[in-house]
């Protein structure tokens, strides 16, 4: 918690200094608006996830509570931080205004009322603070806000991506798809849940599509665009990981984010001797958790599946 407070203080200090510097400009009438960078947000959410797994609920709540005072919260598929915040507040008897968070879950993040009603702790909130008409209206608003044409195009991109694997047209398909996505992201915004809904329900996986862009001429251009949207809280760090792994697997047959060694299967594989810190720095720069966290979480998932 102490480390978190220090990092938040440093962040506020940097924003403050930036604003003062801009205001001091000779010919500048208004200070420049400082955009929030969501990479520190992602890194803190992994800590929250760890705290919840080991049942340190009070610390997890306090971390989310502090984080949401700085960042407009998002509700990632794998971490459900807004939902967890409300559930923890009920469990720990914290006095928060839960209604706006529940509204956001339904309207912006596509969590259905049916899904929320599976959480016993939320039943009193849904019953006492919402009418059935209000809840239905929020679900309808989410549906109406989805850009269905954008989603349809993503489905087409995904389908042709999969059908072209191992065929002669594969490289050209990847070139066409990366150009389409660059245009779509620049004109319609990044395909996050508020924009296109939960696209996995249509079997659209952006990380899989991005993995195939390694040979594309626009690779560097797309990487810049993707990083911009990670910082905005639109793209997921995992999507950048998949995107960059495609390049390193194709060219070097090595994992850019983890320590790898040469083997007999990958004759071009490059043995690496970097310390773990090198890989963790690479991961942290795009908002990924540490190798230790990922190994711990993967082992936990395997244990639960056995």
How would you describe this structure to a colleague?
The chain is an all-alpha fold. It has two domains: 2-25 and 35-145, no CATH class; 148-305, no CATH class. Helices cover 63% and strands 0% of the residues. The protein is built from 16 helices and no strands. The chain has helices at residues 2-23, 39-53, 57-68, 81-91, 98-107, 113-116, 123-129, 132-145, 148-163, 170-188, 193-196, 206-211, 219-231, 237-251, 276-285, 291-305. α2 (39-53) runs antiparallel to α3 and α4 runs antiparallel to α5 (98-107). The radius of gyration is 22 Å and the shape is globular.
Which features does this protein show?
2 domains, disordered N terminus, globular, mainly alpha, 63% helix, 306 residues, single chain
Arithmetic mean of pLDDT: 85
Please give the radius of gyration in angstroms. Answer: 22 Å
Q: Regarding quaternary structure, how should these chains be classified? A: single chain
Secondary-structure class: mainly alpha
Helix proportion of residues, in percent? 55-70%
